[in-house]
Amino acid sequence: MRYNVAIVGATGMVGRKFLKVLEERRLPIDKYYLFASKNSAGKTVEFMGKTHTVIELTRENISGKNLHYALFSAGGAVSKEFAPVFAQNGITVIDNSSCWRMDPAVPLVVPEVNPKDLDWHKGIVANPNCSTIQAVVALAPLHKKFKLKRVVYSTYQAVSGAGQQGYEDLAEGIKGNPPKKFPKPIFGDVIPQIDVFCPDGYTKEEHKMIDETRKIMGLPDLKVTATTVRVPVFHGHSESINAEFKRPVTVESMREVLSKAPGVVLRDDPDSGVYPLPIEAEDHDEVYVGRVRVDDSVKYGANLWVVADNIRKGAATNAVQILQLLIKKAKKSGR
Ligand SMILES: NC(=O)c1ccc[n+]([C@@H]2O[C@H](COP(=O)([O-])OP(=O)(O)OC[C@H]3O[C@@H](n4cnc5c(N)ncnc54)[C@H](OP(=O)(O)O)[C@@H]3O)[C@@H](O)[C@H]2O)c1
Fold this sequence. Notes:
Layout: E1 3-8, H1 13-25, E2 29-36, E3 44-47, E4 50-53, E5 55-56, H2 59-62, E6 69-72, H3 76-88, E7 92-95, E8 124-126, H4 130-146, E9 148-156, H5 163-174, H6 204-217, E10 223-227, E11 237-245, H7 251-260, E12 264-266, H8 278-281, E13 287-295, E14 301-308, H9 312-332
Parallel strand pairs: 1-2, 1-6, 2-5, 6-7, 7-8, 9-10, 12-13
Antiparallel strand pairs: 3-4, 9-11, 11-14, 13-14
Helix pairs in contact: 1-9, 4-6, 4-9
The structure holds NADP nicotinamide-adenine-dinucleotide phosphate.
């Protein structure tokens, strides 16, 4: 059995990375259909050795294509309107927006952490926020062994996390031009605001990290807090993670767990100047962990430095991994 796949938002930052990851992974896909807004309709994109014409996303244009799966990265409004339309037509949607993530009827999946949650999807699977994905890939194996009690996130997030316009704000800022996407100039500065502020003073991005960590890890009562910050880096989110555990930890025992954890590359040799850098994570699928330390300000505490390519593992790769798992499941059940 081979499948047909729609890529919605194919011309965007995440959409273009979908195409790259799909070219690398060679899934059993017969036909791809590339959708975007009417601004891009008719443009051509070279993909899988073929020229694809971008199709405007409309209800009419979805029909007659015998689609099985759709990868969405066209923003929340598009996901809200169109993901149910696809799902009602039997097309399983893997959605990158925040629109469906906290819906209790929609699984929120990181394949290294909670692949079993794919068993109960009803046509929509949500891909988590980029900063949450890399955090839970590092935390889940540590939780398995040491049992998490509390997590404090401080992030250093790349401009590409805000899409093409975020990327351009830094590129243009370097030339002295004012920002269009961010609330302040990003070049030469850091902005302690990602997304809008909520009434409690936290930003929406901070709430996403808190809520999504609990949902993915199946720990609804986990104590989590976050401060998310935009930095003038093009690619790759970095995170300082402070974690408190219920069981004793040592640097050696944490390194041992992390060195075997799926999707993790341990890069932790401070004496030789080895620790993860966002520039080195660019265009890689793994989550890099270093600066592993014991935090003795609490009973069993730890500090980690966690870095990943926000457009790859933080978006496209994670979604394509979900697609691979769904295809594997469909093949197993003869569909
Ligand atoms: N960047 C990240 O690190 C990241 C990580 C995780 C999740 N996400 C999520 O992924 C989504 C896309 O992000 P991005 O960074 O790729 O943004 P982007 O670079 O601005 O791309 C947006 C894409 O959506 C398409 N689009 C916009 N309006 C549309 C409409 N009405 N109908 C169909 N397509 C439409 C655009 O098509 P045109 O080219 O025709 O305008 C473009 O392909 C967002 O929901 C974002 O929150 C982003």
